[in-house]
TrEMBL record, chain A:
Protein name: 4Fe-4S dicluster domain-containing protein
UniProt KW Nucleus keyword: no
Pfam families recorded: Fer4_21 (PF14697)
Superkingdom per UniProt: Archaea
Keywords: 4Fe-4S, Electron transport, Iron, Iron-sulfur, Metal-binding, Repeat, Transport
InterPro entries: 4Fe4S_Fe-S-bd, 4Fe4S_Fe_S_CS, PorD_KorD
Residues in 4Fe-4S ferredoxin-type domain copies: 35-64, 76-105
NCBIfam families: PorD_KorD
Cofactor(s) listed: [4Fe-4S] cluster
Region spans: Disordered: 1-25
TrEMBL record, chain B:
GO molecular function: 2-oxobutyrate synthase activity; pyruvate synthase activity; thiamine pyrophosphate binding
Protein name as catalogued: 2-oxoacid oxidoreductase (ferredoxin)
PANTHER family: PYRUVATE SYNTHASE SUBUNIT PORB
EC number: 1.2.7.11
Superkingdom classification of source: Archaea
Residue span(s) of domain Thiamine pyrophosphate enzyme TPP-binding: 56-225
Catalytic activity: a 2-oxocarboxylate + 2 oxidized [2Fe-2S]-[ferredoxin] + CoA = an acyl-CoA + 2 reduced [2Fe-2S]-[ferredoxin] + CO2 + H(+)
Organism whose genome encodes this protein: Ignisphaera aggregans
Length: 107, 321
Protein backbone atom coordinates (compact mmCIF):
# COMPACT_ATOMS: atom_id res chain seq x y z
CA UNK A 1 0.00 0.00 0.00
CA UNK A 2 2.95 2.34 -0.22
CA UNK A 3 2.05 5.63 -1.87
CA UNK A 4 -1.61 4.61 -2.22
CA UNK A 5 -4.49 6.05 -0.22
CA UNK A 6 -6.41 3.68 2.05
CA UNK A 7 -10.09 3.25 1.06
CA UNK A 8 -12.57 5.68 2.60
CA UNK A 9 -15.11 4.51 5.20
CA UNK A 10 -17.94 4.30 2.63
CA UNK A 11 -15.81 2.28 0.23
CA UNK A 12 -15.01 -0.47 2.75
CA UNK A 13 -17.14 -3.64 2.34
CA UNK A 14 -19.63 -4.27 5.21
CA UNK A 15 -18.07 -5.89 8.23
CA UNK A 16 -14.62 -4.89 7.07
CA UNK A 17 -14.44 -8.05 4.97
CA UNK A 18 -11.43 -8.43 2.72
CA UNK A 19 -12.70 -9.55 -0.68
CA UNK A 20 -9.36 -10.43 -2.24
CA UNK A 21 -8.07 -13.77 -0.91
CA UNK A 22 -4.39 -14.00 -0.09
CA UNK A 23 -3.55 -10.38 -0.83
CA UNK A 24 -0.78 -10.38 1.76
CA UNK A 25 1.52 -11.31 -1.13
CA UNK A 26 1.56 -7.57 -1.83
CA UNK A 27 3.30 -7.14 1.48
CA UNK A 28 6.81 -8.55 1.08
CA UNK A 29 8.39 -9.69 4.33
CA UNK A 30 11.80 -10.29 2.76
CA UNK A 31 13.12 -7.02 4.15
CA UNK A 32 13.03 -8.49 7.68
CA UNK A 33 15.97 -10.69 6.79
CA UNK A 34 19.45 -10.20 8.24
CA UNK A 35 20.82 -13.53 7.05
CA UNK A 36 20.23 -14.97 3.60
CA UNK A 37 19.90 -18.74 2.97
CA UNK A 38 21.46 -19.86 -0.31
CA UNK A 39 20.67 -23.35 -1.63
CA UNK A 40 23.53 -25.17 -3.35
CA UNK A 41 21.78 -27.03 -6.18
CA UNK A 42 24.80 -29.32 -6.64
CA UNK A 43 24.74 -30.60 -3.06
CA UNK A 44 20.94 -30.62 -2.71
CA UNK A 45 19.36 -34.10 -2.59
CA UNK A 46 15.78 -32.82 -3.25
CA UNK A 47 14.34 -34.26 -0.04
CA UNK A 48 11.94 -31.26 0.23
CA UNK A 49 12.48 -30.93 3.98
CA UNK A 50 13.18 -27.20 3.64
CA UNK A 51 9.93 -26.80 1.72
CA UNK A 52 8.06 -28.72 4.42
CA UNK A 53 9.51 -26.86 7.38
CA UNK A 54 9.44 -23.32 5.92
CA UNK A 55 6.83 -21.35 7.91
CA UNK A 56 6.50 -18.70 5.20
CA UNK A 57 6.06 -20.84 2.09
CA UNK A 58 9.21 -19.08 0.86
CA UNK A 59 10.75 -22.21 -0.68
CA UNK A 60 9.55 -22.78 -4.23
CA UNK A 61 9.65 -26.04 -6.15
CA UNK A 62 10.85 -25.34 -9.69
CA UNK A 63 9.85 -28.02 -12.20
CA UNK A 64 12.90 -27.74 -14.41
CA UNK A 65 15.38 -30.53 -15.05
CA UNK A 66 18.77 -29.90 -13.50
CA UNK A 67 22.03 -31.70 -14.23
CA UNK A 68 24.74 -31.60 -11.59
CA UNK A 69 28.46 -31.46 -12.38
CA UNK A 70 28.81 -35.15 -11.53
CA UNK A 71 26.13 -36.01 -14.12
CA UNK A 72 23.17 -36.64 -11.82
CA UNK A 73 19.80 -35.72 -13.37
CA UNK A 74 17.12 -34.13 -11.19
CA UNK A 75 13.57 -33.48 -12.39
CA UNK A 76 13.04 -30.45 -10.15
CA UNK A 77 14.90 -28.03 -7.89
CA UNK A 78 14.08 -25.94 -4.86
CA UNK A 79 14.71 -22.22 -4.69
CA UNK A 80 14.31 -19.60 -1.98
CA UNK A 81 11.80 -16.85 -2.67
CA UNK A 82 13.68 -13.85 -1.31
CA UNK A 83 10.58 -11.62 -1.49
CA UNK A 84 9.12 -13.48 1.50
CA UNK A 85 12.02 -15.27 3.22
CA UNK A 86 12.36 -13.79 6.72
CA UNK A 87 15.74 -15.42 7.21
CA UNK A 88 14.84 -17.55 10.23
CA UNK A 89 17.30 -20.28 9.25
CA UNK A 90 15.08 -23.31 9.93
CA UNK A 91 15.94 -24.65 6.45
CA UNK A 92 19.66 -24.19 7.14
CA UNK A 93 19.38 -26.11 10.39
CA UNK A 94 17.16 -28.90 9.04
CA UNK A 95 18.92 -29.58 5.72
CA UNK A 96 20.23 -33.17 6.07
CA UNK A 97 23.17 -32.64 3.67
CA UNK A 98 24.02 -29.06 4.75
CA UNK A 99 23.42 -27.76 1.24
CA UNK A 100 22.05 -24.42 2.45
CA UNK A 101 24.49 -21.68 3.30
CA UNK A 102 23.55 -18.84 5.65
CA UNK A 103 25.31 -15.61 4.78
CA UNK A 104 24.89 -12.15 6.25
CA UNK A 105 22.98 -9.62 4.16
CA UNK A 106 25.33 -6.83 3.18
CA UNK A 107 24.10 -3.75 1.43
CA UNK B 1 -21.16 -37.43 2.52
CA UNK B 2 -18.23 -39.69 3.17
CA UNK B 3 -17.38 -40.68 -0.42
CA UNK B 4 -14.88 -37.93 -1.00
CA UNK B 5 -13.64 -38.31 2.55
CA UNK B 6 -12.52 -41.91 2.20
CA UNK B 7 -10.57 -41.08 -0.96
CA UNK B 8 -8.16 -38.92 1.01
CA UNK B 9 -4.73 -40.51 0.64
CA UNK B 10 -2.39 -41.55 3.43
CA UNK B 11 0.65 -39.28 3.40
CA UNK B 12 3.92 -41.21 3.44
CA UNK B 13 6.55 -38.71 2.29
CA UNK B 14 6.85 -34.97 1.55
CA UNK B 15 6.18 -35.79 -2.12
CA UNK B 16 2.60 -36.84 -1.27
CA UNK B 17 1.75 -33.43 0.13
CA UNK B 18 -0.20 -31.11 -2.18
CA UNK B 19 1.83 -28.26 -3.62
CA UNK B 20 -0.95 -25.68 -3.35
CA UNK B 21 -0.50 -23.08 -0.64
CA UNK B 22 -3.71 -21.86 0.96
CA UNK B 23 -1.89 -19.67 3.47
CA UNK B 24 -0.27 -16.96 1.38
CA UNK B 25 3.22 -15.77 2.29
CA UNK B 26 3.55 -12.21 3.50
CA UNK B 27 1.95 -12.84 6.88
CA UNK B 28 3.69 -11.19 9.82
CA UNK B 29 4.34 -14.16 12.11
CA UNK B 30 7.79 -13.86 13.70
CA UNK B 31 10.72 -15.31 11.77
CA UNK B 32 10.97 -18.98 12.72
CA UNK B 33 7.42 -19.24 14.05
CA UNK B 34 6.28 -22.81 13.49
CA UNK B 35 2.60 -21.80 13.51
CA UNK B 36 2.99 -20.81 9.86
CA UNK B 37 4.17 -24.29 9.00
CA UNK B 38 1.40 -25.96 11.01
CA UNK B 39 -1.34 -23.88 9.34
CA UNK B 40 0.18 -24.38 5.87
CA UNK B 41 0.01 -28.16 6.24
CA UNK B 42 -3.40 -28.08 7.86
CA UNK B 43 -4.79 -26.21 4.85
CA UNK B 44 -2.89 -28.39 2.38
CA UNK B 45 -4.62 -31.43 3.89
CA UNK B 46 -8.03 -29.74 4.14
CA UNK B 47 -8.07 -28.36 0.61
CA UNK B 48 -10.06 -25.45 -0.83
CA UNK B 49 -13.53 -26.49 0.49
CA UNK B 50 -12.74 -25.32 3.97
CA UNK B 51 -13.97 -22.64 6.34
CA UNK B 52 -11.53 -21.64 9.05
CA UNK B 53 -12.54 -20.00 12.31
CA UNK B 54 -9.76 -18.61 14.43
CA UNK B 55 -9.80 -17.41 17.98
CA UNK B 56 -7.78 -14.33 18.82
CA UNK B 57 -4.15 -15.27 18.92
CA UNK B 58 -0.87 -15.04 17.10
CA UNK B 59 -2.17 -16.58 13.89
CA UNK B 60 -5.26 -14.39 13.83
CA UNK B 61 -3.53 -11.04 14.37
CA UNK B 62 -0.57 -11.70 12.14
CA UNK B 63 -2.28 -13.24 9.12
CA UNK B 64 -4.99 -10.61 8.83
CA UNK B 65 -3.44 -7.17 9.11
CA UNK B 66 -6.15 -5.02 7.59
CA UNK B 67 -6.46 -4.48 4.59
CA UNK B 68 -4.46 -7.64 3.88
CA UNK B 69 -5.24 -11.29 4.47
CA UNK B 70 -3.09 -14.36 4.04
CA UNK B 71 -6.00 -16.75 3.76
CA UNK B 72 -6.91 -18.07 0.33
CA UNK B 73 -10.00 -19.80 1.76
CA UNK B 74 -13.02 -18.39 3.67
CA UNK B 75 -11.94 -17.25 7.10
CA UNK B 76 -13.78 -15.72 10.06
CA UNK B 77 -12.82 -14.33 13.43
CA UNK B 78 -15.35 -13.19 16.00
CA UNK B 79 -13.91 -13.00 19.50
CA UNK B 80 -11.34 -14.61 21.74
CA UNK B 81 -13.57 -17.04 23.60
CA UNK B 82 -15.97 -18.30 20.96
CA UNK B 83 -14.02 -19.91 18.10
CA UNK B 84 -15.69 -23.23 18.94
CA UNK B 85 -19.19 -21.68 19.10
CA UNK B 86 -18.75 -19.90 15.76
CA UNK B 87 -17.50 -23.14 14.19
CA UNK B 88 -20.54 -25.01 15.59
CA UNK B 89 -22.86 -22.38 14.11
CA UNK B 90 -21.22 -22.60 10.70
CA UNK B 91 -21.40 -26.37 10.75
CA UNK B 92 -25.10 -26.30 11.71
CA UNK B 93 -25.82 -23.73 8.98
CA UNK B 94 -24.11 -25.88 6.35
CA UNK B 95 -26.21 -28.86 7.47
CA UNK B 96 -29.44 -26.87 7.11
CA UNK B 97 -28.48 -25.40 3.73
CA UNK B 98 -27.62 -28.89 2.48
CA UNK B 99 -30.96 -30.25 3.71
CA UNK B 100 -32.83 -27.43 1.96
CA UNK B 101 -30.85 -28.02 -1.23
CA UNK B 102 -29.29 -24.57 -1.36
CA UNK B 103 -25.84 -26.12 -1.54
CA UNK B 104 -25.01 -29.54 -2.95
CA UNK B 105 -25.69 -32.14 -0.19
CA UNK B 106 -22.77 -34.28 -1.38
CA UNK B 107 -20.27 -31.47 -1.18
CA UNK B 108 -18.02 -31.90 1.78
CA UNK B 109 -17.17 -28.63 3.49
CA UNK B 110 -14.58 -28.85 6.22
CA UNK B 111 -15.02 -26.60 9.22
CA UNK B 112 -11.83 -26.00 11.15
CA UNK B 113 -11.50 -24.08 14.39
CA UNK B 114 -7.98 -22.89 15.05
CA UNK B 115 -6.98 -21.51 18.43
CA UNK B 116 -3.93 -20.97 20.53
CA UNK B 117 -3.43 -22.16 24.06
CA UNK B 118 -4.99 -19.04 25.61
CA UNK B 119 -8.08 -19.41 23.44
CA UNK B 120 -8.43 -23.08 24.36
CA UNK B 121 -7.04 -23.80 27.84
CA UNK B 122 -8.40 -20.71 29.56
CA UNK B 123 -10.69 -18.39 27.64
CA UNK B 124 -12.35 -20.60 25.06
CA UNK B 125 -12.68 -23.70 27.21
CA UNK B 126 -16.40 -23.71 27.87
CA UNK B 127 -17.20 -23.01 24.21
CA UNK B 128 -14.96 -25.94 23.26
CA UNK B 129 -16.58 -28.23 25.81
CA UNK B 130 -20.00 -27.26 24.43
CA UNK B 131 -18.91 -28.04 20.87
CA UNK B 132 -17.65 -31.46 21.91
CA UNK B 133 -20.81 -32.24 23.84
CA UNK B 134 -23.13 -31.22 20.98
CA UNK B 135 -21.07 -33.33 18.59
CA UNK B 136 -20.59 -30.89 15.73
CA UNK B 137 -18.47 -32.13 12.87
CA UNK B 138 -15.62 -29.70 13.41
CA UNK B 139 -11.88 -30.19 13.54
CA UNK B 140 -10.46 -28.16 16.41
CA UNK B 141 -6.73 -27.54 16.11
CA UNK B 142 -4.88 -26.14 19.10
CA UNK B 143 -1.40 -24.74 18.41
CA UNK B 144 0.20 -24.62 21.81
CA UNK B 145 3.01 -22.11 22.32
CA UNK B 146 2.55 -22.39 26.09
CA UNK B 147 1.77 -18.71 26.91
CA UNK B 148 -0.11 -15.68 25.60
CA UNK B 149 2.63 -14.88 23.09
CA UNK B 150 0.54 -12.47 21.05
CA UNK B 151 0.10 -9.97 23.89
CA UNK B 152 3.63 -10.32 25.24
CA UNK B 153 4.29 -13.68 26.94
CA UNK B 154 1.80 -13.88 29.80
CA UNK B 155 1.28 -17.22 31.55
CA UNK B 156 -1.60 -19.45 30.44
CA UNK B 157 -2.96 -22.79 31.57
CA UNK B 158 -0.59 -24.36 29.06
CA UNK B 159 2.61 -22.91 30.46
CA UNK B 160 4.77 -25.71 31.89
CA UNK B 161 6.21 -25.87 35.42
CA UNK B 162 9.04 -23.38 36.20
CA UNK B 163 8.75 -21.58 32.84
CA UNK B 164 9.51 -17.88 32.89
CA UNK B 165 6.83 -15.55 31.52
CA UNK B 166 6.25 -11.84 32.15
CA UNK B 167 3.55 -12.67 34.70
CA UNK B 168 5.51 -15.50 36.34
CA UNK B 169 8.85 -13.72 36.79
CA UNK B 170 12.04 -15.14 38.21
CA UNK B 171 13.42 -13.66 41.43
CA UNK B 172 14.07 -14.51 45.05
CA UNK B 173 10.61 -15.96 45.70
CA UNK B 174 9.21 -16.82 42.28
CA UNK B 175 10.98 -19.34 40.09
CA UNK B 176 8.73 -19.10 37.06
CA UNK B 177 5.33 -20.77 36.97
CA UNK B 178 4.34 -22.66 40.11
CA UNK B 179 1.84 -25.02 38.54
CA UNK B 180 1.91 -27.86 36.05
CA UNK B 181 0.59 -27.72 32.50
CA UNK B 182 -3.07 -28.60 32.19
CA UNK B 183 -3.51 -31.95 30.32
CA UNK B 184 -5.98 -30.46 27.84
CA UNK B 185 -5.97 -33.34 25.34
CA UNK B 186 -6.90 -35.78 28.11
CA UNK B 187 -9.67 -33.46 29.29
CA UNK B 188 -10.98 -33.37 25.71
CA UNK B 189 -10.64 -37.16 25.44
CA UNK B 190 -12.84 -37.44 28.53
CA UNK B 191 -15.68 -36.03 26.38
CA UNK B 192 -15.54 -39.38 24.47
CA UNK B 193 -15.28 -37.76 21.04
CA UNK B 194 -14.26 -39.91 18.03
CA UNK B 195 -10.78 -38.48 17.53
CA UNK B 196 -8.25 -36.83 19.85
CA UNK B 197 -4.55 -36.56 19.07
CA UNK B 198 -1.40 -34.72 20.03
CA UNK B 199 1.05 -33.89 17.26
CA UNK B 200 4.49 -32.42 16.79
CA UNK B 201 5.45 -30.39 13.68
CA UNK B 202 8.94 -31.92 13.68
CA UNK B 203 7.24 -35.25 12.88
CA UNK B 204 5.24 -33.73 10.05
CA UNK B 205 4.15 -36.97 8.36
CA UNK B 206 2.54 -38.04 11.62
CA UNK B 207 1.01 -34.55 11.98
CA UNK B 208 -0.55 -34.36 8.50
CA UNK B 209 -1.99 -37.86 8.83
CA UNK B 210 -3.60 -36.80 12.09
CA UNK B 211 -5.10 -33.76 10.36
CA UNK B 212 -6.42 -36.13 7.67
CA UNK B 213 -8.00 -38.45 10.24
CA UNK B 214 -9.44 -35.49 12.11
CA UNK B 215 -11.17 -34.25 8.95
CA UNK B 216 -12.47 -37.73 8.09
CA UNK B 217 -14.19 -38.67 11.33
CA UNK B 218 -17.91 -38.18 11.73
CA UNK B 219 -18.06 -35.89 14.71
CA UNK B 220 -15.77 -33.52 16.54
CA UNK B 221 -12.03 -34.03 16.39
CA UNK B 222 -9.35 -32.34 18.48
CA UNK B 223 -5.66 -32.08 17.64
CA UNK B 224 -3.19 -30.57 20.06
CA UNK B 225 -0.02 -29.41 18.29
CA UNK B 226 3.07 -28.16 20.09
CA UNK B 227 4.42 -24.97 18.56
CA UNK B 228 7.88 -23.78 19.65
CA UNK B 229 7.92 -19.98 19.87
CA UNK B 230 11.37 -18.40 19.38
CA UNK B 231 10.20 -15.08 20.84
CA UNK B 232 8.55 -16.36 23.99
CA UNK B 233 10.66 -19.43 24.66
CA UNK B 234 13.82 -17.37 24.11
CA UNK B 235 15.88 -19.30 21.58
CA UNK B 236 17.39 -18.60 18.16
CA UNK B 237 14.66 -18.90 15.47
CA UNK B 238 16.71 -21.41 13.50
CA UNK B 239 16.33 -24.05 16.25
CA UNK B 240 12.51 -24.09 16.17
CA UNK B 241 12.21 -27.55 14.65
CA UNK B 242 15.13 -28.86 16.71
CA UNK B 243 13.39 -27.80 19.93
CA UNK B 244 10.16 -29.46 18.75
CA UNK B 245 12.07 -32.66 17.99
CA UNK B 246 13.76 -32.60 21.41
CA UNK B 247 10.37 -32.25 23.09
CA UNK B 248 9.42 -35.67 21.74
CA UNK B 249 12.87 -37.20 22.23
CA UNK B 250 12.85 -36.26 25.92
CA UNK B 251 9.19 -37.37 26.31
CA UNK B 252 8.17 -33.86 27.38
CA UNK B 253 5.73 -34.20 24.49
CA UNK B 254 4.22 -37.60 23.66
CA UNK B 255 2.53 -38.03 20.28
CA UNK B 256 -0.55 -40.13 20.85
CA UNK B 257 -4.02 -40.49 19.41
CA UNK B 258 -7.34 -41.88 20.57
CA UNK B 259 -9.37 -43.10 17.64
CA UNK B 260 -12.83 -44.37 18.63
CA UNK B 261 -11.64 -45.20 22.12
CA UNK B 262 -8.45 -46.94 21.06
CA UNK B 263 -5.33 -45.38 22.57
CA UNK B 264 -2.10 -45.46 20.54
CA UNK B 265 1.31 -43.81 20.71
CA UNK B 266 2.16 -42.89 17.12
CA UNK B 267 5.79 -41.88 17.64
CA UNK B 268 7.48 -44.43 19.91
CA UNK B 269 10.71 -43.29 21.56
CA UNK B 270 12.87 -46.38 22.23
CA UNK B 271 15.59 -44.42 24.06
CA UNK B 272 14.59 -41.26 25.79
CA UNK B 273 16.88 -38.30 26.51
CA UNK B 274 17.15 -36.36 29.75
CA UNK B 275 14.86 -33.30 29.86
CA UNK B 276 17.88 -31.04 30.45
CA UNK B 277 18.66 -31.19 26.71
CA UNK B 278 15.26 -29.67 25.99
CA UNK B 279 15.25 -27.19 28.88
CA UNK B 280 18.78 -25.91 28.37
CA UNK B 281 18.01 -24.86 24.79
CA UNK B 282 15.43 -22.33 25.94
CA UNK B 283 15.97 -19.01 27.69
CA UNK B 284 12.71 -19.30 29.61
CA UNK B 285 14.25 -22.16 31.64
CA UNK B 286 17.71 -20.63 32.08
CA UNK B 287 17.18 -19.96 35.81
CA UNK B 288 16.60 -23.63 36.64
CA UNK B 289 18.94 -25.33 39.08
CA UNK B 290 19.83 -29.01 38.74
CA UNK B 291 17.40 -29.80 41.56
CA UNK B 292 14.51 -28.21 39.67
CA UNK B 293 15.45 -29.99 36.47
CA UNK B 294 15.40 -33.28 38.41
CA UNK B 295 11.92 -32.39 39.67
CA UNK B 296 10.72 -31.93 36.08
CA UNK B 297 12.47 -35.19 35.11
CA UNK B 298 10.66 -37.07 37.91
CA UNK B 299 7.34 -35.69 36.70
CA UNK B 300 8.12 -36.79 33.11
CA UNK B 301 9.15 -40.26 34.38
CA UNK B 302 5.74 -40.58 36.04
CA UNK B 303 3.98 -39.47 32.83
CA UNK B 304 5.93 -42.01 30.77
CA UNK B 305 5.13 -44.75 33.29
CA UNK B 306 1.45 -43.83 33.08
CA UNK B 307 1.47 -43.94 29.24
CA UNK B 308 3.31 -47.30 29.18
CA UNK B 309 0.96 -48.77 31.78
CA UNK B 310 -2.06 -47.54 29.82
CA UNK B 311 -0.80 -49.27 26.67
CA UNK B 312 0.40 -52.40 28.49
CA UNK B 313 3.79 -52.30 26.71
CA UNK B 314 6.86 -50.11 26.69
CA UNK B 315 6.61 -47.57 23.86
CA UNK B 316 8.55 -44.79 25.54
CA UNK B 317 11.84 -46.36 26.50
CA UNK B 318 14.17 -45.92 29.47
CA UNK B 319 16.23 -42.82 30.12
CA UNK B 320 19.64 -42.83 28.45
CA UNK B 321 21.97 -39.82 28.00
Amino acid sequence: MQGKQLPKWNEIPPGGAILEPGNSVKRPTGDWRTFRPIIDKEKCVRCLLCWVYCPDAAIKIIDEPYRTASGKEWKFSVEVDYTFCKGCGICVEECPVKAIEFVEEVK
Amino acid sequence: MSQSATSRPVYRSPFDLPREEYLAPGHSLCAGCVAGMIVRHLLKVAGPNTIVVTATGCVEVSTTLYPYTSWRIPWIHVAFENAASVASGIEAAIKVLQRKGVIDPNKRINVIALAGDGGTYDIGFQALSGLLERGHKVLYVLYDNEAYMNTGIQRSGGTPLFAWTTTTPVGKVWKGKWQQKKPIAEIVAAHRIPYVATANPAYFIDMVNKFRKGLEVDGPAFIHVIQPCPTGWRFDPRYSIKVAKLATETAMWINWEIENGEFRVTVPVPKRKHVKHYLRMQGRFRHLTDKEIEEIQRFIDREVEYINKRLGKEVIGPLVE
